[in-house]
Amino acid sequence: xxxxxxxxxxxxxxxxxxxxxxxxxxxxxxxxxxxxxxxxxxxxxxxxxxxxxxxxxxxxxxxxxxxxxxxxxxxxxxxxxxxxxxxxxxxxxxxxxxxxxxxxxxxxxxxxxxxxxxxxxxxxxxxxxxxxxxxxxxxxxxxxxxxxxxxxxxxxxxxxxxxxxxxxxxxxxxxxxxxxxxxxxxxxxxxxxxxxxxxxxxxxxxxxxxxxxxxxxxxxxxxxxxxxxxxxxxxxxxxxxxxxxxxxxxxxxxxxxxxxxxxxxxxxxxxxxxxxxxxxxxxxxxxxxxxxxxxxxxxxxxxxxxxxxxxxxxxxxxxxxxxxxxxxxxxxxxxxxxxxxxxxxxxxxxxx
Amino acid sequence: xxxxxxxxxxxxxxxxxxxxxxxxxxxxxxxxxxxxxxxxxxxxxxxxxxxxxxxxxxxxxxxxxxxxxxxxxxxxxxxxxxxxxxxxxxxxxxxxxxxxxxxxxxxxxxxxxxxxxxxxxxxxxxxxxxxxxxxxxxxxxxxxxxxxxxxxxxxxxxxxxxxxxxxxxxxxxxxxxxxxxxxxxxxxxxxxxxxxxxxxxxxxxxxxxxxxxxxxxxxxxxxxxxxxxxxxxxxxxxxxxxxxxxxxxxxxxxxxxxxxxxxxxxxxxxxxxxxxxxxxxxxxxxxxxxxxxxxxxxxxxxxxxxxxxxxxxxxxxxxxxxxxxxxxxxxxxxxxxxxxxxxxxxxxxxxxxxxxxxxxxxxxxxxxxxxxxxxxxxxxxxxxxxxxxxxxxxxxxxxxxxxxxxxxxxxxxxxxxxxxxxxxxxxxxxxxxxxxxxxxxxxxxxxxxxxxxxxxxxxxxxxxxxxxxxxxxxxxxxxxxxxxxxxxxxxxxxxxxxxxxxxxxxxxxxxxxxxxx
Amino acid sequence: xxxxxxxxxxxxxxxxxxxxxxxxxxxxxxxxxxxxxxxxxxxxxxxxxxxxxxxxxxxxxxxxxxxxxxxxxxxxxxxxxxxxxxxxxxxxxxxxxxxxxxxxxxxxxxxxxxxxxxxxxxxxxxxxxxxxxxxxxxxxxxxxxxxxxxxxxxxxxxxxxxxxxxxxxxxxxxxxxxxxxxxxxxxxxxxxxxxxxxxxxxxxxxxxxxxxxxxxxxxxxxxxxxxxxxxxxxxxxxxxxxxxxxxxxxxxxxxxxxxxxxxxxxxxxxxxxxxxxxxxxxxxxxxxxxxxxxxxxxxxxxxxxxxxxxxxxxxxxxxxxxxxxxxxxxxxxxxxxxxxxxxxxxxxxxxxxxxxxxxxxxxxxxxxxxxxxxxx
Amino acid sequence: xxxxxxxxxxxxxxxxxxxxxxxxxxxxxxxxxxxxxxxxxxxxxxxxxxxxxxxxxxxxxxxxxxxxxxxxxxxxxxxxxxxxxxxxxxxxxxxxxxxxxxxxxxxxxxxxxxxxxxxxxxxxxxxxxxxxxxxxxxxxxxxxxxxxxxxxxxxxxxxxxxxxxxxxxxxxxxxxxxxxxxxxxxxxxxxxxxxxxxxxxxxxxxxxxxxxxxxxxxxxxxxxxxxxxxxxxxxxxxxxxxxxxxxxxxxxxxxxxxxxxxxxxxxxxxxxxxxxxxxxxxxxxxxxxxxxxxxxxxxxxxxxxxxxxxxxxxxxxxxxxxxxxxxxxxxx
Lengths: 352, 517, 376, 332
Prior knowledge:
The complex is a heterotetramer of chains A (352), B (517), C (376) and D (332).
Chain A: H1 2-24, H2 28-46, H3 53-61, H4 64-78, H5 86-102, H6 112-139, H7 145-164, E1 169-170, H8 193-197, H9 201-219, H10 221-231, H11 233-238, H12 243-266, E2 271-272, H13 279-289, H14 301-320, H15 325-351
Antiparallel strand pairs in A: 1-2
Chain B: E1 6-17, E2 20-31, E3 35-39, H1 46-53, E4 61-66, E5 69-71, H2 76-81, E6 84-87, H3 99-104, H4 118-131, H5 148-161, E7 166-170, H6 178-193, E8 197-201, H7 205-211, E9 214-219, E10 222-228, H8 234-242, E11 260-269, E12 273-281, E13 285-290, H9 296-303, E14 311-316, E15 319-321, H10 326-331, E16 334-337, H11 341-345, H12 352-356, E17 365-366, E18 369-370, H13 372-385, H14 402-414, E19 420-424, H15 432-447, E20 451-455, H16 459-465, E21 468-473, E22 476-482, H17 488-496, H18 507-511, H19 513-516
Parallel strand pairs in B: 3-8, 3-9, 6-7, 7-8, 13-20, 13-21, 16-19, 19-20
Antiparallel strand pairs in B: 1-2, 1-4, 4-5, 9-10, 11-12, 11-14, 14-15, 17-18, 21-22
Chain D: H1 2-11, H2 14-24, H3 26-44, H4 51-76, H5 84-100, H6 106-130, H7 135-154, H8 168-171, E1 173-174, E2 177-178, H9 179-197, H10 199-209, H11 211-216, H12 221-247, H13 258-268, H14 280-299, H15 304-330
Antiparallel strand pairs in D: 1-2
Helix pairs in contact in D: 2-3, 3-14, 3-15, 4-9, 4-10, 4-12, 4-13, 4-14, 5-6, 5-7, 5-12, 6-7, 6-12, 9-10, 13-14, 14-15
């Protein structure tokens, strides 16, 4: 008995420390935040240029479109599915947006602002539509999501090239450039001026949409139902939740967010082009590094957004640290691996 | 009881599946404030009936009457709206979500804006649990970290959160231990007091007598009879269920107890297996009792090499052996029938012959190539020897009944020609007839000289089948009884930890100072 | 215990590169610039005329028993590195223009959607089987593509390359848009004119393994050493043919070097407008000069706004046009090994250099005066 | 179940029964789709259905085929390997690097390349089994990591100038058949036997259907998983070697995107992405179908962009047809 009390009393102080640690490392979001801050601090320490406002803008804005697409991907993965066609879809919708704004055949009475509005909104609608088609194949025809989206990956890619013939789009009107990397206009803040000068349109959209989606997934019955469907589809069905409707919703919203990301992507440059980098892998990586379980049922959009920012920070940090460019990809891969392992080990600890 | 009203009535229900008539003109009703037990062997139509009552299936004929009005349930949701909630055997919960959210999934309290009102949800969940006399559950814990007993309580709370008037429980005690069963019964009594009608399905007849008011028996999809529990006997119910007279539930055969086959000394692993020592002799059935979480399965899995021991020795016929993997354990002649047939014992999507051969693939193959004839022969002989009711060795195992599935698991382990057979909950979720068959099988195997360690949560089974009884508590072996000494009381007391009998405490354990503290 | 060993093994495999990080961090002088190892041939500084190169023996391959199709209609296939980027859309345009002009040539463009060596080979292989009279190509890898081109020659198919070469034995002629050293000179002289002899600059290229880009950088390196010795090479970053990545990399260079940075070179038709976009959006027009290879349409907004002074490029429409003309002349027997020039429609006579290459001409420099005259 | 079987047998004539028997298997349905596609393509061009063209297609699909075989094993166990394309690149680079830069004899360099491939695969397996990382995530991370290693080792240099014998495998023929095709056929036969006839193959199905039960039955689950991932790495290394021999040079971007091609062939072949079912025969048919579609369409004058649209549609449609046919036949 004596020995028992002793161990208990000895554990006390340690458990306080560990409880602090546990709060910090209790969720993947806070782990990512800590890693992000440490990384920025470390790189800033060895090269102070890294902390300059302009660089910080680019650190946060650079992957904004990846982060926004990751919002939709989070929903899809939380419901236990996956979408690997998002890269092709995003490029297709970017091109569509550019094609709409440079189209010459509008009736002359249509004001330019309306044309710009159409080119901002229609791609999002089309994205939702394609999401609905994918969702239909997955839910009603019961084809695994990975097969459907693998198919759509090449269908969209092929159609895009056929239609565009590889031509890039230039000559968009000035008002179209929604997401250029300039500080938001018309804002005047007496305090934290530097901070708010970092707020560019892509960052604004990223943060705003993240908050909206995070709240929606936490507070809306539909958002909760996504976790239910991914966690235990049978139980969800018996709770009166329509699995088909929820999975459809996830794919449609995924299409919407890919559409938003595509428009932001198209409107930040003076040229829109049909190159097809494998963005889907970056988006999925951001999502899983953000702690969204590939098995469904758990994970938050905050983690996914933080992970997207972290991935971009790593890329830039390696340049600032003068790492040989040949090794950057290896180090990126390694850091992804380490973060994923840390998340899993943390979860296993918690489970014990 | 006099003014109790009928909450739910199923009248002349029929239901067919391709090739099978599952229910044929069955009637059933539940009144407020009663526990109506539903009995029948597997395949008798119990689950079809409750699935109709809960809206999963739609009947081909007959009608459903709720509160005097005929209704149609198009989906489980419809049944819930009419106050009928069902708790299935596989608890349908979301492991990654909190207790509160599990309870209120699909009907969470909302704010005026239509958003989920989290504080309110937590408060209501706590209230609900308190009303069930459950005070030891934190509503913010993830359900994945709860014990099975606690998960079941969450399920009950979930049902009540939907204002259920009728609660259907499908074998609620199959996966929990005596202590949890007691708490469950307390809750059921509480619900009776609140005029809830409970439909109770179990294979354990004594529970029907403990908690039931009326009992209905089904057989082969037909209605047999409804009786007041007070006016019937266990034998009568068994006869109605099986349609014939069963000789005995526990056909214990006299055996010649031989030499020590397996001995473990000071076996330890983690917190669940602490300094466990015992012996198994040829021809002997040793029962292992204990609450869920007392470390029974963990001891078995440690011996079997699934979780290799951290300390202690294992001796086979007096020779010390090292076991680090199931494969090694099998080489020494140890076989282990895991407790969960569906997830651990069988590969349900595979054919019967592929299941029976899984443990002996090496013996059936030469240079890694499987001899398909031998595999087929093995399957056929297993079907014959264990009288498995399957139309062919090619049948998908998942389509067999529970008892026959369990026989396949037994068969696949017998194929390894073990000397030591560890069976973990061998008759869980199996109907009475099949249960008796499994018991007879175990007895016969012991008679043939096999050493059997039988882990079970059913005390009657332990008492009825064992030559010796070991009791586990908190990872330690705390008591040992001979067949003659063991009674329901003293074994139960030992399991619960307030047994203070004399003479039978394990000597080995008594020496350990830590144990006494 | 075993678990521990395995864990250590896995971890050490993973962490070994991390431990080598200090070794990986590069020294200032040895910084990688994306050049290749082949010999360089810098042009003389300033306006001095280039010395006439020594004539070289014809070193291309020859088709085996090609059918005589002189004057007859021929079917050609064009397999560029990839489809889906503006540059090859422009060469295709030129090819169609030439085909229309000639009237007896049919040419289709078909290539993979990613710059992928093995897929490009498969495309060419399929067209050999299908039976075409001639193949035009722009190689993703000079060595990898050669075996399949030789197979085409063996079957009597005519092979002419453009934009990116194979090994000489893989094709009969290669239409060279501009010599590497000429491009290098034009780029560096443009920057010097804009930002002075002591300009410090960074480069955004496609990948270090893309042959043309590596070659240009090697020639720039050699030419700068001779003629602009005070210029400072800061850093070269890879950005594939990806506009987003090019934009980010340009931003990274701008942020990392701050006021130090005087100029950015874009080595691809994607990187240059992306770099101009980055400079414009950072509000650094005039501070940071953008010089590079690009097509006019993409650069018009920047040149018109004055942010970019000059864009270096041959005319890719002309390049595609010339390739078809060269092919026609080869088929007609008007252009044989040993010839020193070839007739190419509206482009006039083109010179043969380097044994088996047809030179399109000196690189063209687009400025605010002339850029609006072009539309591709 | 039993009653339905007999009633079917009574009502159907013998030929119909046989057709049904074929249709009951995923491979059968796929085979019919393949035959129909081939017949349609053959009417479009006479260049398509010739021995020479078909053998040449065999040469071109060998590398993906070699990777798709172990991928079938992995997907049957419910896993996936996204890093195969990167391992191809890493092995190719190691081959050139250890020959050209480290001065090993070419034979040894080939062995090193294969060994590195197997090692990279085994690392995948260890991460998946020891740390219990879901395969998709583990190999997504090593996809980036192995490609990065290849780039780091290559330092943007490609190695060329191999001796003539080195090209025997990739560019020459024996008895009129491309050399690498022999290896693919041997690979297919060995893999098919391994999967359908041996204890090892059986254990993979068991793992895919119920990993826990397999472990409880004494099957060395972790060991077998590490083995198949190592096998996958080895075959990717071998594919890298075949590719280098075919195209005569090494580059660090070799094999990028191949993971999706291999997965498409496996999934098209009827292997369930959730594990438990599938066969090498199916994968082989899937592989052949994709290659012949690409080739046949190209020969019929369809350009590459339209071809990938067709392939994407075929992937979805044939899966759909298979699901519908199976559902109908099983009466579910």
